[in-house]
Protein backbone atom coordinates (compact mmCIF):
# COMPACT_ATOMS: atom_id res chain seq x y z
CA UNK A 1 0.00 0.00 0.00
CA UNK A 2 1.52 3.31 -1.12
CA UNK A 3 0.76 5.88 1.56
CA UNK A 4 -0.35 9.06 -0.15
CA UNK A 5 -1.55 12.05 1.86
CA UNK A 6 -5.27 11.31 1.22
CA UNK A 7 -4.71 7.69 2.26
CA UNK A 8 -2.98 8.84 5.44
CA UNK A 9 -5.86 11.21 6.19
CA UNK A 10 -8.44 8.47 5.78
CA UNK A 11 -6.43 6.04 7.90
CA UNK A 12 -5.95 8.63 10.63
CA UNK A 13 -9.68 9.37 10.66
CA UNK A 14 -10.57 5.71 10.87
CA UNK A 15 -7.95 5.01 13.54
CA UNK A 16 -9.41 7.74 15.74
CA UNK A 17 -12.09 5.18 16.61
CA UNK A 18 -11.30 1.87 14.89
CA UNK A 19 -14.51 0.21 16.06
CA UNK A 20 -16.79 2.92 14.73
CA UNK A 21 -18.24 2.26 11.29
CA UNK A 22 -18.01 5.32 9.06
CA UNK A 23 -19.95 6.25 5.95
CA UNK A 24 -18.73 8.31 3.01
CA UNK A 25 -20.05 11.73 4.04
CA UNK A 26 -18.75 11.12 7.56
CA UNK A 27 -15.26 10.43 6.23
CA UNK A 28 -15.42 13.42 3.88
CA UNK A 29 -16.17 15.63 6.89
CA UNK A 30 -13.43 14.07 9.04
CA UNK A 31 -10.72 14.21 6.38
CA UNK A 32 -11.74 17.26 4.37
CA UNK A 33 -11.34 15.20 1.21
CA UNK A 34 -13.75 15.63 -1.71
CA UNK A 35 -15.78 12.60 -2.78
CA UNK A 36 -13.74 12.23 -5.97
CA UNK A 37 -10.62 11.64 -3.88
CA UNK A 38 -12.17 9.75 -1.00
CA UNK A 39 -13.90 6.90 -2.84
CA UNK A 40 -10.84 5.81 -4.86
CA UNK A 41 -8.90 5.75 -1.57
CA UNK A 42 -11.60 3.63 0.07
CA UNK A 43 -11.51 1.26 -2.90
CA UNK A 44 -7.73 0.90 -2.63
CA UNK A 45 -7.92 0.24 1.10
CA UNK A 46 -10.60 -2.41 0.55
CA UNK A 47 -8.56 -4.03 -2.21
CA UNK A 48 -5.59 -4.16 0.19
CA UNK A 49 -7.75 -5.85 2.84
CA UNK A 50 -7.35 -2.97 5.30
CA UNK A 51 -10.95 -1.89 5.10
CA UNK A 52 -14.26 -3.74 5.34
CA UNK A 53 -17.54 -2.43 4.00
CA UNK A 54 -21.11 -3.49 4.50
CA UNK A 55 -24.59 -2.18 3.97
CA UNK A 56 -26.56 -0.68 6.78
CA UNK A 57 -29.29 -3.06 7.91
CA UNK A 58 -32.32 -0.82 7.67
CA UNK A 59 -35.68 -1.17 6.01
CA UNK A 60 -35.60 1.64 3.40
CA UNK A 61 -39.39 1.99 3.52
CA UNK A 62 -39.54 2.26 7.31
CA UNK A 63 -36.46 4.48 7.49
CA UNK A 64 -37.62 6.65 4.60
CA UNK A 65 -34.16 6.53 3.00
CA UNK A 66 -31.96 4.02 1.22
CA UNK A 67 -29.43 1.93 3.17
CA UNK A 68 -25.96 3.44 3.34
CA UNK A 69 -22.62 1.69 3.11
CA UNK A 70 -20.35 1.75 6.13
CA UNK A 71 -16.63 1.30 6.36
CA UNK A 72 -14.47 0.02 9.19
CA UNK A 73 -10.82 -0.99 9.48
CA UNK A 74 -10.18 -4.72 9.61
CA UNK A 75 -7.88 -6.18 12.28
CA UNK A 76 -5.09 -6.33 9.74
CA UNK A 77 -5.95 -2.81 8.64
CA UNK A 78 -5.72 -1.41 12.18
CA UNK A 79 -2.29 -3.00 12.71
CA UNK A 80 -0.85 -2.08 9.30
CA UNK A 81 -2.34 1.42 9.31
CA UNK A 82 -0.78 2.18 12.70
CA UNK A 83 2.58 0.96 11.47
CA UNK A 84 2.31 2.90 8.21
CA UNK A 85 1.33 6.15 9.93
CA UNK A 86 4.08 5.69 12.53
CA UNK A 87 6.62 5.29 9.73
CA UNK A 88 5.22 8.36 8.03
CA UNK A 89 5.57 10.38 11.22
CA UNK A 90 9.11 9.11 11.70
CA UNK A 91 9.98 10.43 8.24
CA UNK A 92 8.53 13.85 8.97
CA UNK A 93 11.10 16.49 10.06
CA UNK A 94 11.29 17.13 13.82
CA UNK A 95 9.12 20.06 14.87
CA UNK A 96 8.02 20.58 11.28
CA UNK A 97 5.09 22.87 10.75
CA UNK A 98 1.86 21.83 9.16
CA UNK A 99 1.81 22.56 5.42
CA UNK A 100 -1.63 23.50 4.37
CA UNK A 101 -3.44 20.41 5.60
CA UNK A 102 -0.89 18.04 4.18
CA UNK A 103 -0.83 16.04 7.37
CA UNK A 104 -3.43 13.55 8.46
CA UNK A 105 -6.29 15.15 10.28
CA UNK A 106 -7.71 13.81 13.48
CA UNK A 107 -5.70 12.38 16.33
CA UNK A 108 -4.72 8.80 15.61
CA UNK A 109 -5.56 6.55 18.52
CA UNK A 110 -2.17 5.06 19.23
CA UNK B 1 -35.74 18.09 -8.41
CA UNK B 2 -33.41 19.50 -11.08
CA UNK B 3 -30.49 19.34 -8.65
CA UNK B 4 -31.25 15.70 -7.86
CA UNK B 5 -31.47 14.81 -11.55
CA UNK B 6 -28.29 16.67 -12.41
CA UNK B 7 -26.48 15.01 -9.50
CA UNK B 8 -27.80 11.62 -10.59
CA UNK B 9 -26.51 12.24 -14.12
CA UNK B 10 -23.09 13.16 -12.75
CA UNK B 11 -23.06 10.02 -10.58
CA UNK B 12 -23.81 7.79 -13.55
CA UNK B 13 -21.06 9.54 -15.53
CA UNK B 14 -18.66 8.94 -12.64
CA UNK B 15 -19.67 5.29 -12.31
CA UNK B 16 -18.93 4.58 -15.98
CA UNK B 17 -15.24 5.17 -15.28
CA UNK B 18 -15.10 2.51 -12.57
CA UNK B 19 -14.76 -1.23 -13.20
CA UNK B 20 -18.03 -2.75 -14.39
CA UNK B 21 -18.38 -5.11 -11.44
CA UNK B 22 -18.31 -2.20 -8.95
CA UNK B 23 -20.68 0.23 -10.63
CA UNK B 24 -24.04 -0.97 -9.31
CA UNK B 25 -22.91 -0.91 -5.67
CA UNK B 26 -21.17 2.45 -6.06
CA UNK B 27 -24.24 4.10 -7.58
CA UNK B 28 -26.36 2.62 -4.77
CA UNK B 29 -23.93 3.95 -2.16
CA UNK B 30 -23.59 7.40 -3.72
CA UNK B 31 -27.35 7.79 -4.19
CA UNK B 32 -27.86 6.93 -0.52
CA UNK B 33 -25.42 9.70 0.43
CA UNK B 34 -27.13 12.11 -1.97
CA UNK B 35 -30.42 11.27 -0.30
CA UNK B 36 -28.99 12.30 3.07
CA UNK B 37 -27.81 15.61 1.61
CA UNK B 38 -31.14 16.15 -0.17
CA UNK B 39 -33.06 15.62 3.08
CA UNK B 40 -30.94 18.35 4.67
CA UNK B 41 -31.67 20.63 1.70
CA UNK B 42 -27.96 20.87 0.91
CA UNK B 43 -28.23 21.32 -2.85
CA UNK B 44 -24.77 22.79 -3.34
CA UNK B 45 -23.16 19.94 -1.40
CA UNK B 46 -25.15 17.47 -3.50
CA UNK B 47 -23.75 18.93 -6.69
CA UNK B 48 -20.23 19.21 -5.25
CA UNK B 49 -20.41 15.58 -4.11
CA UNK B 50 -21.53 14.33 -7.54
CA UNK B 51 -19.29 16.66 -9.57
CA UNK B 52 -16.20 15.67 -7.61
CA UNK B 53 -16.91 12.02 -8.30
CA UNK B 54 -17.48 12.75 -11.98
CA UNK B 55 -14.26 14.73 -12.23
CA UNK B 56 -12.14 12.50 -10.00
CA UNK B 57 -10.19 9.52 -11.20
CA UNK B 58 -11.61 6.04 -11.04
CA UNK B 59 -10.58 3.86 -8.13
CA UNK B 60 -8.22 1.32 -9.53
CA UNK B 61 -5.24 0.06 -7.61
CA UNK B 62 -2.56 2.70 -7.70
CA UNK B 63 0.28 1.51 -9.86
CA UNK B 64 3.79 2.14 -8.72
CA UNK B 65 5.48 4.55 -11.12
CA UNK B 66 8.38 2.20 -11.69
CA UNK B 67 5.91 -0.55 -12.59
CA UNK B 68 4.05 1.82 -14.88
CA UNK B 69 7.25 2.90 -16.61
CA UNK B 70 8.34 -0.71 -16.97
CA UNK B 71 4.96 -1.55 -18.52
CA UNK B 72 5.22 1.42 -20.88
CA UNK B 73 8.67 0.32 -22.03
CA UNK B 74 7.41 -3.24 -22.45
CA UNK B 75 4.40 -2.03 -24.46
CA UNK B 76 6.62 0.10 -26.71
CA UNK B 77 8.99 -2.83 -27.25
CA UNK B 78 6.15 -5.20 -28.20
CA UNK B 79 4.36 -2.78 -30.51
CA UNK B 80 7.49 -1.39 -32.16
CA UNK B 81 9.27 -4.72 -32.65
CA UNK B 82 6.31 -6.74 -33.92
CA UNK B 83 6.04 -5.05 -37.37
CA UNK B 84 9.78 -5.43 -38.19
CA UNK B 85 9.39 -9.04 -37.02
CA UNK B 86 6.61 -9.41 -39.59
CA UNK B 87 8.93 -8.05 -42.31
CA UNK B 88 11.54 -10.58 -41.18
CA UNK B 89 8.91 -13.33 -41.29
CA UNK B 90 8.01 -12.43 -44.89
CA UNK B 91 11.68 -12.35 -45.94
CA UNK B 92 12.57 -15.61 -44.14
CA UNK B 93 9.53 -17.36 -45.58
CA UNK B 94 10.58 -16.16 -49.05
CA UNK B 95 14.11 -17.50 -48.54
CA UNK B 96 12.80 -20.89 -47.37
CA UNK B 97 10.32 -20.94 -50.25
CA UNK B 98 13.12 -20.30 -52.76
CA UNK B 99 15.31 -23.03 -51.25
CA UNK B 100 12.40 -25.46 -51.33
CA UNK B 101 11.60 -24.46 -54.89
CA UNK B 102 15.20 -25.10 -55.99
CA UNK B 103 14.93 -28.65 -54.61
CA UNK B 104 11.41 -29.32 -55.91
CA UNK B 105 11.98 -27.84 -59.37
CA UNK B 106 14.31 -30.65 -60.46
CA UNK B 107 11.91 -33.34 -59.24
CA UNK B 108 8.39 -32.01 -59.83
CA UNK B 109 6.88 -30.48 -62.95
CA UNK B 110 4.35 -28.50 -60.89
CA UNK B 111 6.88 -27.01 -58.49
CA UNK B 112 6.08 -23.49 -59.72
CA UNK B 113 2.46 -23.89 -58.65
CA UNK B 114 3.44 -24.43 -55.00
CA UNK B 115 5.69 -21.38 -54.73
CA UNK B 116 3.06 -18.86 -53.57
CA UNK B 117 1.06 -21.31 -51.40
CA UNK B 118 4.32 -22.35 -49.73
CA UNK B 119 5.32 -18.72 -49.11
CA UNK B 120 1.87 -17.89 -47.75
CA UNK B 121 1.72 -21.04 -45.60
CA UNK B 122 5.13 -20.44 -44.07
CA UNK B 123 4.25 -16.79 -43.43
CA UNK B 124 0.91 -17.67 -41.86
CA UNK B 125 2.57 -20.26 -39.58
CA UNK B 126 5.29 -17.86 -38.47
CA UNK B 127 2.69 -15.09 -38.10
CA UNK B 128 0.64 -17.34 -35.81
CA UNK B 129 3.73 -18.07 -33.70
CA UNK B 130 4.42 -14.35 -33.48
CA UNK B 131 0.79 -13.84 -32.40
CA UNK B 132 1.29 -16.35 -29.57
CA UNK B 133 4.37 -14.49 -28.38
CA UNK B 134 2.57 -11.15 -28.58
CA UNK B 135 -0.44 -12.52 -26.67
CA UNK B 136 1.84 -13.63 -23.85
CA UNK B 137 3.65 -10.29 -23.90
CA UNK B 138 0.31 -8.43 -23.84
CA UNK B 139 -0.26 -9.62 -20.25
CA UNK B 140 2.38 -7.13 -19.11
CA UNK B 141 1.54 -4.22 -21.39
CA UNK B 142 -0.34 -1.04 -20.52
CA UNK B 143 -4.12 -1.36 -20.71
CA UNK B 144 -5.87 1.45 -22.54
CA UNK B 145 -9.11 1.75 -24.48
CA UNK B 146 -9.80 -0.23 -27.67
CA UNK B 147 -9.20 2.73 -30.00
CA UNK B 148 -5.80 3.74 -28.55
CA UNK B 149 -4.83 0.06 -28.62
CA UNK B 150 -5.83 -0.23 -32.29
CA UNK B 151 -3.87 2.91 -33.13
CA UNK B 152 -0.95 1.63 -31.04
CA UNK B 153 -0.86 -1.49 -33.22
CA UNK B 154 -1.40 0.19 -36.60
CA UNK B 155 0.89 3.23 -36.29
CA UNK B 156 4.09 1.18 -35.72
CA UNK B 157 3.15 -0.92 -38.77
CA UNK B 158 2.81 2.30 -40.77
CA UNK B 159 6.18 3.46 -39.44
CA UNK B 160 7.83 0.19 -40.41
CA UNK B 161 6.31 0.31 -43.89
CA UNK B 162 7.55 3.88 -44.31
CA UNK B 163 11.09 2.84 -43.36
CA UNK B 164 11.03 -0.19 -45.68
CA UNK B 165 9.58 1.77 -48.62
CA UNK B 166 12.10 4.57 -48.06
CA UNK B 167 14.93 2.02 -48.06
CA UNK B 168 13.73 0.49 -51.33
CA UNK B 169 13.15 3.92 -52.86
CA UNK B 170 16.73 4.79 -51.96
CA UNK B 171 17.87 1.85 -54.06
CA UNK B 172 16.00 3.22 -57.05
CA UNK B 173 13.18 0.64 -56.99
CA UNK B 174 10.46 1.47 -59.52
CA UNK B 175 6.75 1.10 -58.88
CA UNK B 176 6.82 1.87 -55.16
CA UNK B 177 4.39 4.82 -55.40
CA UNK B 178 1.79 2.43 -56.80
CA UNK B 179 1.84 0.38 -53.61
CA UNK B 180 1.12 3.32 -51.30
CA UNK B 181 -2.67 3.72 -51.81
CA UNK B 182 -3.28 0.03 -51.15
CA UNK B 183 -1.13 0.06 -48.02
CA UNK B 184 -2.84 3.20 -46.73
CA UNK B 185 -6.27 1.71 -47.32
CA UNK B 186 -5.24 -1.48 -45.51
CA UNK B 187 -3.96 0.49 -42.50
CA UNK B 188 -7.07 2.70 -42.46
CA UNK B 189 -9.44 -0.27 -42.51
CA UNK B 190 -7.38 -2.24 -40.03
CA UNK B 191 -8.00 0.39 -37.34
CA UNK B 192 -11.82 -0.09 -37.14
CA UNK B 193 -11.37 -3.88 -37.34
CA UNK B 194 -9.03 -3.88 -34.33
CA UNK B 195 -11.12 -1.25 -32.56
CA UNK B 196 -14.23 -3.42 -32.92
CA UNK B 197 -12.35 -6.52 -31.78
CA UNK B 198 -10.98 -4.68 -28.75
CA UNK B 199 -14.38 -3.29 -27.83
CA UNK B 200 -15.96 -6.74 -27.90
CA UNK B 201 -13.05 -8.28 -25.99
CA UNK B 202 -13.34 -5.61 -23.29
CA UNK B 203 -16.95 -6.74 -22.81
CA UNK B 204 -15.81 -10.33 -22.34
CA UNK B 205 -17.03 -11.50 -25.79
CA UNK B 206 -13.70 -12.95 -26.80
CA UNK B 207 -14.84 -15.34 -29.56
CA UNK B 208 -16.88 -12.68 -31.28
CA UNK B 209 -13.94 -10.29 -30.89
CA UNK B 210 -11.67 -12.75 -32.70
CA UNK B 211 -14.26 -13.26 -35.44
CA UNK B 212 -14.73 -9.52 -35.96
CA UNK B 213 -10.98 -8.87 -35.84
CA UNK B 214 -10.04 -11.59 -38.32
CA UNK B 215 -12.92 -10.87 -40.71
CA UNK B 216 -12.26 -7.14 -40.53
CA UNK B 217 -8.55 -7.64 -41.20
CA UNK B 218 -9.38 -9.91 -44.18
CA UNK B 219 -11.75 -7.29 -45.59
CA UNK B 220 -9.04 -4.63 -45.10
CA UNK B 221 -6.45 -6.77 -46.91
CA UNK B 222 -8.88 -7.71 -49.69
CA UNK B 223 -9.87 -4.09 -50.25
CA UNK B 224 -6.21 -3.06 -50.37
CA UNK B 225 -5.42 -5.71 -53.00
CA UNK B 226 -8.47 -4.75 -55.05
CA UNK B 227 -7.46 -1.08 -54.98
CA UNK B 228 -3.89 -1.89 -56.01
CA UNK B 229 -5.02 -4.08 -58.91
CA UNK B 230 -7.85 -1.82 -60.12
CA UNK B 231 -5.63 1.26 -60.10
CA UNK B 232 -2.90 -0.49 -62.11
CA UNK B 233 -4.62 -2.99 -64.44
CA UNK B 234 -7.54 -1.93 -66.64
CA UNK B 235 -10.77 -3.84 -67.05
CA UNK B 236 -11.20 -5.79 -70.32
CA UNK B 237 -12.69 -3.76 -73.17
CA UNK B 238 -16.05 -4.76 -74.59
CA UNK B 239 -15.55 -6.47 -77.96
CA UNK B 240 -13.37 -9.13 -79.63
CA UNK B 241 -9.79 -9.77 -78.49
CA UNK B 242 -7.22 -8.35 -80.90
CA UNK B 243 -4.69 -10.76 -82.45
CA UNK B 244 -6.09 -13.62 -80.36
CA UNK B 245 -3.66 -12.77 -77.55
CA UNK B 246 -4.88 -12.44 -73.97
CA UNK B 247 -5.20 -8.74 -73.13
CA UNK B 248 -3.37 -7.23 -70.14
CA UNK B 249 -6.66 -6.73 -68.33
CA UNK B 250 -8.38 -8.26 -65.36
CA UNK B 251 -12.13 -8.79 -65.19
CA UNK B 252 -13.52 -7.11 -62.05
CA UNK B 253 -16.06 -9.86 -61.47
CA UNK B 254 -13.55 -11.90 -59.46
CA UNK B 255 -12.29 -8.94 -57.38
CA UNK B 256 -13.28 -10.35 -53.94
CA UNK B 257 -11.13 -13.41 -54.64
CA UNK B 258 -7.94 -11.56 -55.54
CA UNK B 259 -6.53 -11.69 -52.02
CA UNK B 260 -6.90 -15.48 -51.95
CA UNK B 261 -5.48 -15.59 -55.48
CA UNK B 262 -2.40 -13.76 -54.29
CA UNK B 263 -1.96 -16.19 -51.38
CA UNK B 264 -2.67 -19.42 -53.27
CA UNK B 265 -1.95 -18.63 -56.95
CA UNK B 266 -5.24 -20.35 -57.67
CA UNK B 267 -8.75 -19.48 -58.80
CA UNK B 268 -10.19 -21.97 -56.29
CA UNK B 269 -11.88 -23.91 -59.10
CA UNK B 270 -13.74 -20.85 -60.43
CA UNK B 271 -13.54 -19.61 -64.06
CA UNK B 272 -12.19 -16.22 -62.95
CA UNK B 273 -9.54 -15.03 -62.52
CA UNK B 274 -8.01 -16.87 -65.49
CA UNK B 275 -4.40 -18.08 -65.41
CA UNK B 276 -3.33 -14.94 -67.30
CA UNK B 277 -5.25 -12.70 -64.91
CA UNK B 278 -3.62 -14.49 -61.97
CA UNK B 279 -0.25 -13.79 -63.52
CA UNK B 280 -1.09 -10.10 -63.95
CA UNK B 281 -2.47 -9.79 -60.40
CA UNK B 282 0.46 -11.53 -58.69
CA UNK B 283 2.89 -9.64 -60.90
CA UNK B 284 1.38 -6.37 -59.69
CA UNK B 285 0.65 -7.25 -56.05
CA UNK B 286 3.10 -9.84 -54.78
CA UNK B 287 4.62 -8.91 -51.42
CA UNK B 288 1.86 -6.80 -49.85
CA UNK B 289 -0.71 -9.62 -49.39
CA UNK B 290 1.94 -11.79 -47.74
CA UNK B 291 2.83 -8.91 -45.42
CA UNK B 292 -0.87 -8.49 -44.54
CA UNK B 293 -0.92 -12.21 -43.75
CA UNK B 294 2.12 -11.87 -41.47
CA UNK B 295 0.68 -8.91 -39.56
CA UNK B 296 -2.96 -9.94 -39.16
CA UNK B 297 -2.54 -12.68 -36.50
CA UNK B 298 -0.47 -10.59 -34.11
CA UNK B 299 -2.51 -7.41 -34.67
CA UNK B 300 -5.81 -9.12 -33.83
CA UNK B 301 -4.23 -11.13 -31.00
CA UNK B 302 -2.84 -7.99 -29.37
CA UNK B 303 -6.09 -6.01 -29.80
CA UNK B 304 -8.05 -8.82 -28.12
CA UNK B 305 -5.50 -9.67 -25.41
CA UNK B 306 -4.88 -6.05 -24.39
CA UNK B 307 -8.59 -5.27 -24.16
CA UNK B 308 -9.72 -8.27 -22.14
CA UNK B 309 -10.94 -7.22 -18.70
CA UNK B 310 -8.44 -7.72 -15.89
CA UNK B 311 -9.53 -10.04 -13.07
CA UNK B 312 -11.60 -8.27 -10.44
CA UNK B 313 -9.70 -7.16 -7.36
CA UNK B 314 -12.78 -6.49 -5.27
CA UNK B 315 -12.20 -7.89 -1.78
CA UNK B 316 -14.90 -9.91 -0.08
CA UNK B 317 -16.63 -7.55 2.33
CA UNK B 318 -16.49 -8.43 5.99
CA UNK B 319 -19.66 -8.07 8.01
CA UNK B 320 -19.87 -4.74 9.77
CA UNK B 321 -22.72 -4.16 12.17
CA UNK B 322 -24.86 -1.14 11.43
CA UNK B 323 -24.68 1.61 13.98
CA UNK B 324 -27.64 2.04 16.21
UniProtKB/TrEMBL annotation, chain A:
InterPro entries with a match to the protein in the record: Metal_resp_DNA-bind_regulator, Tscrpt_reg_PadR_N, WH-like_DNA-bd_sf, WH_DNA-bd_sf
UniProt xrefs under Pfam families: PadR
Every Transcription regulator PadR N-terminal domain range: 19-79
Protein name: Transcriptional regulator, PadR family
The species this protein was found in: Micromonospora chaiyaphumensis
UniProtKB/TrEMBL annotation, chain B:
Membrane-crossing residue ranges in chain numbering: 78-104, 116-135, 147-170, 182-201, 208-233
Keyword line: Membrane, Transmembrane, Transmembrane helix
Highest taxon of source: Bacteria
Name this polypeptide is given: Uncharacterized protein
Native source species: Micromonospora chaiyaphumensis
Amino acid sequence: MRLTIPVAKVLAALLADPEAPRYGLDLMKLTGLPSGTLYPVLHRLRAAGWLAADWEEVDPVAAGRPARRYYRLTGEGVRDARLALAELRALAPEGGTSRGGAEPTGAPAW
Amino acid sequence: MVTRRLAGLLLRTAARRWPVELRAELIREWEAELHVLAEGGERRRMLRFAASLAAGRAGGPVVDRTVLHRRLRHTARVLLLAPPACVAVVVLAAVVMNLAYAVLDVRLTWATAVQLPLWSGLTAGAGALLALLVTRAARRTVRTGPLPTALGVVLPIALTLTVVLAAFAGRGEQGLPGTVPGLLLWLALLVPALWGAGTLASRGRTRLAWAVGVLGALVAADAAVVLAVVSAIPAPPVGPVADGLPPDTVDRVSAPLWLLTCWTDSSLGLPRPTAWERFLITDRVLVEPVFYLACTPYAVAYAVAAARPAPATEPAPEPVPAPA
